[in-house]
Amino acid sequence: MCIGILTSPLNQRYMAKRILKIFLYLFLSSTIYAVCCKVIMPPTTLTQLSSWLGPNGLTRDYVSGDEICPNLKLAAIASEDQLFPDHHGFDWDALEKSLASKHKKRVRGGAASTISQQTAKNVFLWQGEGFTKYLRKIPEFYFTKVIEIVWGKKRILNVYLNVIETGPGLFGVEAAAQHYFHKPAKDLTRREAALIIACLPNPKKFQPDSGERYVQWHANWILNQMSHIKNDPDIVELIH
Asked: How far, CA to CA in Å, does 4 sit from each of 9, 11, 130?
């Protein structure tokens, strides 16, 4: 009898309305939060919260864009997303082909997703592969479009460099600069900046001061790419 009550058309409609209201509330509140993050730094992220609760703890120091040296911004673009100034959040194959003649010296970069996508994932969503990765794709698409429209490229790059994981329990380039090189992020040399960015594929495994062959090779590759794109007008405007 209880099963019949729960599965009656009336109760099904009631439950459907409740679920719809919950989704609408989550959608509206998350959108408002995304808009607010145009002017305030995210209080925390799921990745930071997970680290804080775990053995590595949490060390971070949010800084303004003026307190991050152009070397770091250029290294991030060179390594992760050289088409960052041109795309609208997503690097479609057609876009890369259409820009090939305009920016012959630019390459895609080593990341599987754009800086905008990574920022949306880091700030609003969760990490993970497998099924959770595919579950994340729809909200990732939405938040990527929101920050592209509302924040703008400079804000996206600034937030990205402040929230990325840069070592076990370290988040943001300021924390990385202080921990590994004992100086603020605004004073990093080109090589120091490249070394920090070189570890982003797996910052728990690779550290800038480790001397590991992969880190040194990747940093050298980033430095080479930085030299290729440093005079691109769109990139110069973004990093200064």
From this structure: 10, 10, 37
Does 89 lie in the same domain as 4?
Answer: no
pLDDT of residue 23: 75
Tell me which residue range forms the domain holding 142: 41-239
| Residue 26: burial class (beta carbons within 10 Å; 0-12, 13-18, 19+) | exposed
Q: Could you report the per-residue pLDDT of 189-229, keeping only the tens digit for each? A: 999 999 999 999 899 999 998 888 999 999 999 999 999 99
Q: Measured between alpha carbons, how far is 47 from 161 in angstroms, rounded to an integer?
A: 15
Strands (E), the chain: 59-60, 165-167, 170-171
Measured distance between the N- and C-terminal CA atoms of the chain, rounded to whole angstroms: 69
Question: Is residue 93 very low, low, confident or very high in pLDDT (cuts 50, 70, 90)?
Answer: low
Shared domain for 20 and 127, answered yes or no, is no
Same domain, 115 and 215: yes
The verdict on 113 and 85 lying in the same domain is yes
Task: Based on the fold, state whether residues 97 and 15 are members of the same structural domain.
Answer: no
Please check whether residues 86 and 28 belong to one and the same domain: no
Q: What is the pLDDT of residues 147-185, one digit of tens each?
A: 999 999 999 999 999 999 999 999 999 999 999 999 999
- Give the total number of structural domains in the chain: 2
